[in-house]
Amino acid sequence: MSGVRVLVGTRKGAFILTADAKRQKWEVAGPHFGGWEMYHLKGSPVDPNRIYASQSSSWFGQLIQRSDDGGVTWTPVGNEFAYDGIPGTHQWYDGTPHPWEFARVWHLEPSLSDPDTVLAGVEDAALFRSNDAGQSWHELSGLREQGSGPSWQPGAGGMCLHTIIVSPSDPQRIVVAISAAGAFRSDDGGVSWKPINKGLHSEGIPDGDAEVGHCVHHVAMHPSRPDVLFMQKHWDVMRSNDAGENWFEISGNLPSDFGFVMDVHAHEPETLYVLPIKSDSEHFPPDGRLRVYRSRSGGNEWEPLTKGLPQENCYVNVLRDAMAVDNLDECGVYFGTTGGQVYASADAGDTWAPIVRDLPPVLSVEVQNLA
Amino acid sequence: MIRVLLPAHLKTLAGVRGEVEVEVAEPVTSNAIVDALEAAYPALRGTIRDPATGRRRPFVRYFIDEEDHSHEEPDAPLPGDVLSRKVPFIVVGAMAGG
Q1: Beta-ladder partners of A117
Q2: Using CA atoms, how far apart are residues B52 and A81, in angstroms rounded to an integer?
Q3: Cα–Cα distance between A296 and A84 in angstroms, integer?
Q4: What is the SS3 assignment for A192?
């Protein structure tokens, strides 16, 4: 019987939640790596038993763990992320030059075709690739050396490369996003890169329409239409119909166009999900009501989804990698909060229920479909 | 053989309990001990020293016989009580909350 496996990274360990296709009864396994920050776990689309995990701590640095049995057992693999050459400087918060320093891996993106190949987005922002199942890592330095690197600056969470999208129709095309630099695209497998931020406008940078400097929080794509990209920016929900060449705003009637997560329905490429957050500094849901907003028209018209979600006194955040969808016939939607709840909807967002309520703050949520 | 006591998280990573012992040629230094630890327990690579700089991580301390040796030169010989196995070389995660 088919089912799903939800991979949850938290501030203090990883948890693996499994259910059959009804998605009503859940088994919770973990914590794995208790006490460690688990920024991201993601399984190979080719071999779901192959899972990569980013494990880090302020004390003991970065490790990468790999499981070959669906998360039951884990093996530490390579953890040396060395920038190519002398990495130079980026901007610090005060605008002064600051040396590029590796801090942690924010996102792991396994290849769509090879379980031994995986990309890693790191802080300070750079993209690395492993072709040997995580044993060794090599920087795709054309991104950092694209030319605008010295003007990149950290967002509140650090200068992180947090989003990696490989086109299902053209593996040479890769889109990444960096806070706070913007989105970038390679059309040659990661050798050369260009910024794709035309149409973005940001306050907090000297030229609000600059080519780089935008704090992109997340980018999402439906696999059937790789050229259509959706973006949750620091402020503004955006859309591109031409692989990022041009962006336009689709915030429409959202109660706040600030947020972190964004995702697309597995079977309806014009059905989108965001979770509005109050900002600049509050970073909790408007009015203390936890509402996912869904658009069935590719943006601009949004409906609140509230059934099963707390509608009073809720002051959690939902971080950028903490929403995912499964691809069962009735699309499942999942998100995790900084309050430790993981909510699931087995009906495309119409109704919600918590899978777990009291985990450590959730950093990431990914879903695997199991045969 | 040198006695080494690791912090709990690194014991878990290395898959050990209690103290471990590693073979270290003289002169016994903090770098030589960490080299031996990483050779014996590859999962510890990069956890005590930053692989980019080779330096002790800021939140890691080295204690010997109730003395802090964190700020001594990493290639300086350590006290004889470590070599004689009277006391362990203690790797500590700094008290920093969290």
Answers
A1: none
A2: 8
A3: 44
A4: coil
Residues from chain B that touch A76, judged by Cβ atoms under 8 A, are: 13, 42-43
Of chain A residues 223-262, which have a CB less than 8 A from chain B?
A: none
Record: contact B51-A57, CB cut-off 8 A: no
Give the number of A-B residue pairs with CB atoms closer than 8 Å: 46
Cβ-contact A347, A270 below 8 angstroms: no
DSSP states along A294-350: EESSSSS--EEE-TTS--SS------TB-EEE--SSS--EEEE-TTS-EEEESSTTS
The 10s digit of each residue's pLDDT in A1-54 is 589 999 999 999 999 999 999 999 999 999 999 999 999 999 999 999 999 999
- How many residues does the structure list for chain B? 98
Q: What is the ipTM of this complex?
A: 0.91
A184 SS3 class:
strand
Whether the CB-CB separation of A103 and A158 falls below 8 Å is answered with yes
* Whether the Cβ atoms of residue A355 and residue A6 lie closer than 8 Å to each other: yes
- Of A43, A191, A54, A39, give the one whose Cα is nearest residue A112: A43
Neighbours of A285 (CB within 10 A): 26
User: What is the sign of the dihedral through the CA atoms of B49, B54, B58 and B64?
Assistant: positive
pTM attached to this predicted model: 0.96
Locate the domains of chain A by residue range: 31-319
Q: Which residue segments constitute the domains of chain B, with CATH numbers given?
A: 2-93 (3.10.20.30)
Q: Which residue's structure tokens are 């031409």?
A: A242
What's the distance, CA A221 to chain centroid?
12
> Angle at CA A305, nearest 5°, toward A265 and A254?
90
Domain A31-319 in CATH: superfamily?
A: YVTN repeat-like/Quinoprotein amine dehydrogenase (2.130.10.10)
Residue B95 — left, alpha, or beta (φ > 0 → left; ψ -120 to 50 → alpha)?
beta
